[in-house]
Design brief:
It is built from six helices and four strands; from the N terminus they run αααβααββαβ. The chain is α+β, with helices and mostly antiparallel strands. The chain binds iron/sulfur cluster (2 copies).
Length: about 150
């Protein structure tokens, strides 16, 4: 909704989407870019355009999925490791059930008391067919994982 509020909200379809809300959702999944909305380049939307760029720009430290682990907030509980469906599928008898990893196919694993991301191309948020998986986020008690 925050992104939608900054769009022209005219449903003009010049971006190729049927509504501004559809464009907002596509922006969130990086399917489109802010520049793909032509009316946003009008002077009247200058501030909105710049704010949107800030909101969707990947920040330093993020992976290709936009995943960031805030190390100062992570205390290595491993909730996210067990919640990640890719971890569960790739290591059903190890990290997938809270045990020590049995292979290197995990996305999230705890090392030195902090969760770290590997094999990020396996994340459900990666690539053209990405889906907005958020299981690692919602299971973290300290909001240490963020997607930008
Ligand atoms: S977004 Fe989903 S697939 Fe990606 S690391 Fe988090 S839980 Fe795993
Ligand atoms: S990111 Fe959150 S859920 Fe994952 S290990 Fe750190 S504190 Fe636990």
């Amino acid at each position: 909704m925050e992104i939608y509020q900054l769009l022209p909200k005219t449903n003009c379809k010049k971006c190729g989407k049927s509504t501004c809300m559809a464009f907002a959702v596509a922006l969130l999944s990086w399917e489109v870019a802010v520049e793909d909305c032509p009316p946003l380049k009008d002077v009247e939307f200058k501030n909105n355009y710049e704010k949107l760029l800030e909101m969707v720009a990947p920040v330093e430290g993020s992976t290709e999925t936009g995943l960031i682990v805030h190390e100062d907030k992570c205390f290595g509980c491993g909730n996210c490791v067990v919640a990640c469906p890719v971890n569960v599928a790739n290591d059903p008898h190890g990290a997938g059930i809270g045990r020590a990893p049995t292979n290197d196919k995990l996305i999230l694993r705890v090392e030195d008391g902090i969760v770290r991301a590997f094999n990020i191309q396996e994340c459900r948020r990666f690539g053209e067919n990405r889906i907005l998986c958020n299981l690692c986020i919602i299971t973290c008690p300290t909001e240490a994982i963020e997607f930008v």
